[in-house]
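pasting for ref. prot 1 ->
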Amino acid sequence: MKALAFISLRSGRTAETACLLERIAELDPLNSVGGDVIEALLRSAADDRGLGQASPPRQPSPTSSTATRNDG
């Protein structure tokens, strides 16, 4: 999904990129896969185009430091 976000960003599909990054943040609240790197590129691209901030900075979930995985 991170690769897809990068490809969509490189293709100029910033809205799609933002949606993918939101989903990555939901699935990976501790940012283990590095979605913040693509997010920084998205913000930079938005700044370069004069669009302002395309998406808000990623904030860790309040429970991310205490989150436990329970597979049932």
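and prot 2 ->
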Amino acid sequence: MKRLVVARGLVVACCAVFVVSACGSGAGSGSPGGAGSPSSAMGMPMGSSSAPAGGGVAVSTNVVAVKDFAFAPALVSVKVGTTVTWTNSDTEPHTVTSSGAGPLKSPTMNTGDTFRYTFTTAGRFDYLCTIHPFMTATVEVTP
């Protein structure tokens, strides 16, 4: 009888370990507890970029929203001389900073703050948020 109780306890313990490890792995979904993008403990998306991969369609606009930990649109097309305005609509602070050497360098923008930059030369200007470097986007400036 004692052997049966010990064996039953061992089976229950093994099943519990299996269930707990399967719940925490996020296997097959990319995130713990369901489909979608992986998230950190603070609810911020992790491991993905807001910029389109490999030549997304550029949007002709001079307004960029900073919302839900992303720049929208992520690919903007403007002409030389255009002023682009970024507005932070998140509850978290963000920046607009050139990737590598470049002209974009905003101060930290809190909720409701804006940053403006006038593009005076043609080219491709990749940028990111230095606080949340997974947030990336691009402005393409044409002559």
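The first helix runs from residue 2 to 25.
The two ends are 87 Å apart (CA to CA).
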